[in-house]
Each structure stands twice: as C-alpha cells, then as structure tokens.
C-alpha cells in the first residue's frame, strides 16, 4: 500500500476506481517559504512570548535583598556601626552572609531549571518549504502551517488546513469533556490538544494574542507562592510585625527616656532588644531548602515546573498510576495471533499490515503490529478511524487488491464482543498472564456509524507482551512502606492490569475492578476506590471523576501519566506527574516532569518534599521561639523600668549557636515523615510555650542577679548570668527539636554547647562577647533556673501534644 487517499480530505480519492490504478496524489500545502518567514520575523509577527522556567536573576536578587526585615535590620546595623564596637554589629554581617547564600542557591536552582526546561521543551512540527521540522514554540510565525498528531498541544490559535479524523479536546478551555471533530476551515484554540487522528492548522494568532501563550507563561514560571508553607510563613511574619512595632517603641522609650544611662549604651541595648524579635533567617532558610530541593531533583532529570509541587507531593497519601508508560515501558511485542471463526492466517496478516499502514501516528499497540506485519501493498485505505481512549478501538476501510472492499476494527475484545461470547474465556486466560489482547474484527457498518462495532465478526486475537519497568516493583514497595496508597488506573482490560500489578507485588492486585461497573455517585465511588487498588477499562473522563472522588474523601492525590487520556486527570489532581516522553499536552499540565521517563524517580521527589516541609516545620519552631522570648523580655523590661539585659553581641552569639547553625543542618537533613497540614498551628503550638518559658527563666535569673550583684560592673555580671540561663533553655529547645536523635544530631547539639563553653573559658572571647561569669553562687543559680525551665518545657510540650494534636 504505497499511497493512501482518505475520503473527505483535500485531494479526495476514488475508492471505486479500477483495480491496480494509482490513486490521485493528495495535495499537501507546502507551508511558508523561508523568505515569507523572514518577512514576518521582520514585522514582529513571531510567537515571542518569553516562556520562563525560573525567575530572572534580577528578580532573585531583589526578592532576597529588598525585604521588610532586611530594611529594618539594615537601619539598626548602620546605627550600631556608629555608636558601638564592631562586635555589637555582627548581626548585620550575618544577614549579609545569609542573603548572599540565598541568592547563590536560587541562582543555582535557576540554572538547573533553565537547563532542564530546554531539554523538556516541546518542539511543534512546522511545515516550511514543503518540509516538516520541529522548532521552538517561540520561532513560530503568523501563517505557519503546524502539524498535529495525538497528544500534541495546539500552541497558538489557528484554522484547520488538513484533518484526518482529527478529534480535539477543548476541555481545558471550555470545560466540555467530549472531544470535538475538526474539519478544514474550523478554528482551533491554543490550549486544546489532539486526542485522536491528526492534521495541520494555519497560525492566525501568535505571541501574546494567543490565549495559551499567556497560560503557558504563567504555568511554567518558577514561583514560591501558592503553597501552605509560604503562605503560613507570611502569616506568621505579619503577626510578628504587629507584635514587634509597639514592643520596640516601648523599649526605645524605656531605654532612652526613663533610664538615665549613657546614651550609646542605651542605644546598643535597645537595638539588642529589637534585633532578635525578627525571624530574619526563616524566609531565607525556606528559600534555600526549596532551591536545594530543585537542584537535587534536577540531578535526577526531574523538572519541577511549579515549585510548590515539591511541597504538594510531600503531602500526598494516594498516588494514581497509569499502567502503560508508568509501570510498563512504552514498547510492546506481538507474541502471537489466535485465529477465530476459521480465519486464514495469510489473510489476517495482510489485514494487520494494512491496518498498521492506515494510521500515520500509531500508538504503542499498533506500532507492535506494524513491527510484526509488513504492509500489504496492493491494499488501499479509503477511510480510517484513529484509536481513541474513549472508544477503545481503531478502524479502517480498505479496497483490497482483488476488488473487494472491507472494513476492520482493532481494539479491546470486551468492548467489541458481546458479553457471553465464547472467545472471552480464552481472552481472560491470556489477560491473567498479564498479556494484552487486541481483537481484530470485520464489520458491516460504515466507520462513521455510531453502531460500527455492532455485529462485528471476530477474526483473530492479537496477543501483545508488555515490558515491565525493572524499577517499578521497588517503587511500589517504597510507596507501601511510606503509607502512600497506590491505585493503578488503566484503560486496558482489568484482569490484564491486575496481572501486571500482581507481578510487581502491588497489594490488592488480585481484586481488580472493571471501571464500567463503578457507581456514578461520587461518595459511593470513593468507597470503592478506597477498598480496591487496580482498575481497568477506565475512560479519560472516569479518570478525572476518580481523582475528584478521592479528593472528596479527604485524600491528597498525585496522578502519573504520559498519554492524552491522562491530561484531564493530571490537571485535576493535587499533583500531576508526567513522563518526559509523554505527549506535549500531558507535559504542559503536569507540575512535575520526569525527563528520564523513570517511574523510580518519584520516590526521590516525595522524599525531597518531605525533607523540605518536615525540616522547615522544625526550624521554624526554633526561629519563632526566639521571637516570642525576645518580645516578652522587652515587655517585661518596659513594665519593670529596668535596663535591657543584653547587648546585640550576646543575642548574635545565642542565635548563631542555638538557631542559625543548627537550623541550617536540620533544614537539609533527611526526613521521611509525611507532611501534615496546618503549618502555622503546628509551629506556634511549640514556639509559644517555648518562648514563654525561655523569657520567664531568663528574666527570673536577671532579677536574682540584680539583687546579688552591686557596684560599677554589676550590669555586666547580671547580663552574663541571664545569658547563661537563656542559652541553656534555648539549647534544651534545640535538643527537643532535634529528636529523634541520631549520631550526627547529638554531635550537632554537643558542638553548639562546646562552642558556648569555649566563649566562657577563653579570655579574649570573654572580652569580645562581654561575657564573664562572676563568682559561683549566681552562675549556679542561673543553671538551676535553666534546669527548672527545661523541666517545665518538657511538661508543657507534652501537654500541648495531648491538648492540641497536630
């Protein structure tokens, strides 16, 4: 079959012509010439929307430098550089270093993302000068002829020029689930995608005029917004600002007006009270944790198109897997043909070869048939019906070499055969072995008839063997170990899907469900989904309904897929994961693209998300405990009308040893715990009691020291005693946060304690940080107060766990 002419397309065709004559050549528009393309480029008629995978360098620097808290700290830093020794200005240098780290890490993440985006970029096929070639979306010009096949996304608006049974899904634009058949002259909207057939269209709107260009730009932009973690931190910072402003004003008035102290010393102690109220490292550490997550995943060829997807996948408790392309590799092999109803083997081979040639864009099943059966050159295709996931079959009409006409269907046996057909028993036996079976049937109806499958005569069974992914079993075992329920959702025969899942060790694989028996009611469907793990004969719309049913039952759902039948479900799932080899439409709606097509990368993404969320929750408690005790100490000082006990250098030392350094290591440590909701509540339920206990213990020691010490150097001794108590209580907070202990966590806590001890015993460090314990009575009293505070802290946090469970 060297030439094919399709009835109803431009160029026509004459199926009734004499046998052996060459059919007329189908006219194919050549597209724009090179000169016409250059002319349009010169006029600016180019699809030049800058689709970015990451923020620009300017945006990254601006976001890290120009923050509210950096502005406050910057002003305080300048004041301290003027009025106090350099050691009281150390907090400013710490902020500069932190900001630099944040910028460097985000720039590294940007480089990773941009590199991956180029690898994963869709290249639409454009016909120019009669030749088709893939080009970048940004190179399309007005009037270009763009070819389409199953799974291709319509990247700009246009008008259909050629159509070969082309069906386009516009549900992402209109919400209408049924695909629309497109014919020459029909408009196509950017953002829609091809589900069956193919063709070509002429671009009529490019650049920012095309609807999907704006959509794609927004969807693929690197962003840190729209996540519970980021919005939770923003909420916390808003409340911190409200608390900080009046407290800082009261502290300034108290230290500068009420107390008749040396002006420079009063200013230094006032700044010392304000600076620790600001959780300046919390936003930085969150950005760094996310950025490092992107870099780590990038090394595994995982493109994170929306940054909060890392966080979202950490919260997932159900992952829906498409069998083909996810659990199995894309390719298949024909292992045999079972003849039915006395069919002739040679004739069946001719039919299969002709069917393979009839579809210019074969799916994996038909490609296996093409590889096994050569084209019957004396057969001519007069009409074709491309495969559709909704139909579960494809078809074609032929003019055979001997003048006979015939129409054939190739697809799901249980869809094409009536229930009770004797062939179904043999098919079930094959499916139980995990084999895929297609039915070849001859029909007496026209292909465009709604009853084309009725009364079809079964001719042969085509048996296909699917190649299991070698890493799929380990990945499913990982999800089971992490209490993430895996649901295999496929359009294939339920028994066959169950057999494949069983080979991979999926729990519940023996009890498969045919999706045609699923209840329509969402609540009832959710119950069936919760109780079972394998579902076959699922239509694209059902996949979407199943995701919605699981979500209605309170589950956080991830959906993986690579074909056009997965697009709607991927879009509606909490997290959509696409294979890099998947269709253009699938990659466009997914938040995460596995460019290496390896399902085994998914556990890394889950683990990365859990690491980020779990660890940020830990370290946020450290930062906000400091904010709470700083605000309370300032209030107690204002009410008591006494000097603020600390200089900036003291709290810089404490913050570095009990928060800054430990938080950095804790934020990047492994963490397998599934992320839980209510971030703000989970953090504040620990930070508030921790801060209250720390402030109360520190202020108690300070008051005792004020009664114990007298003389000109009394304030220094009082400060040293109060600093010791605050450090010990803060260390206990760190010790609780670091649980459960591992060797490196114990070493981290011990190292921080050792560093503080070093400051207390080395003379020049004592002078540098103005920390010198005087006598033995008060230092031991400070230790005793801290021990009491630690005991109260243990009781308080355990009570909180029982009273306010997360």
Q: What is Rg? A: 34 Å
> What is the distance, rounded to the nearest whole angstrom, between the alpha carbons of the first and last residues?
68 Å
**Percent helix range:** 40-55%
- Low-confidence region ranges: 1-26, 215-226
Biggest pleated-sheet summary: 8 strands, mixed
Instruction: Based on Cα principal axes, name the global outline.
Output: elongated
What topology, given as strand order, has the largest sheet?
8-21-20-19-9-16-18-17
Secondary structure tally: strands: 21
Beta-strand content: 15-25%
Number of helices: 27
Give average pLDDT, whole number: 82
Structural class: alpha/beta
Domain P-type ATPase A: 124-218
Region (Disordered): 1-26
Protein name: HAD-IC family P-type ATPase
Transmembrane segments: 65-84, 90-107, 239-258, 278-297, 619-639, 651-671, 683-705, 717-737, 744-765, 777-800
Q: What are the defining features of this structure?
A:
7-stranded antiparallel sheet; disordered N terminus; about 800 residues; alpha/beta; 8-stranded mixed sheet; transmembrane helix; 21 strands; 27 helices; elongated
Kindly describe this structure.
There is one protein chain. This protein has 806 residues and is α/β, with parallel strands linked by helices. The chain is 50% helix and 16% strand. The strands form 3 sheets. An 8-stranded mixed β-sheet has the order 8-21-20-19-9-16-18-17, with helices on both faces. Strands 1, 2, 3, 4, 5, 6 and 7 form a 7-stranded antiparallel β-sheet that branches. A hairpin with a 5-residue loop joins β12 and β13. α17 crosses α18 and α24 runs parallel beside α27. It starts with 33 loop residues before the first helix and ends with a helix. The model is unreliable at 1-26 and 215-226 (pLDDT under 50). The chain crosses the membrane at residues 65-84, 90-107, 239-258, 278-297, 619-639, 651-671, 683-705, 717-737, 744-765, 777-800. It is a multi-pass membrane protein. Residues 124-218 form the P-type ATPase A domain. Residues 1-26 are annotated as: Disordered. Residues 9-19 have a biased composition (Gly residues).
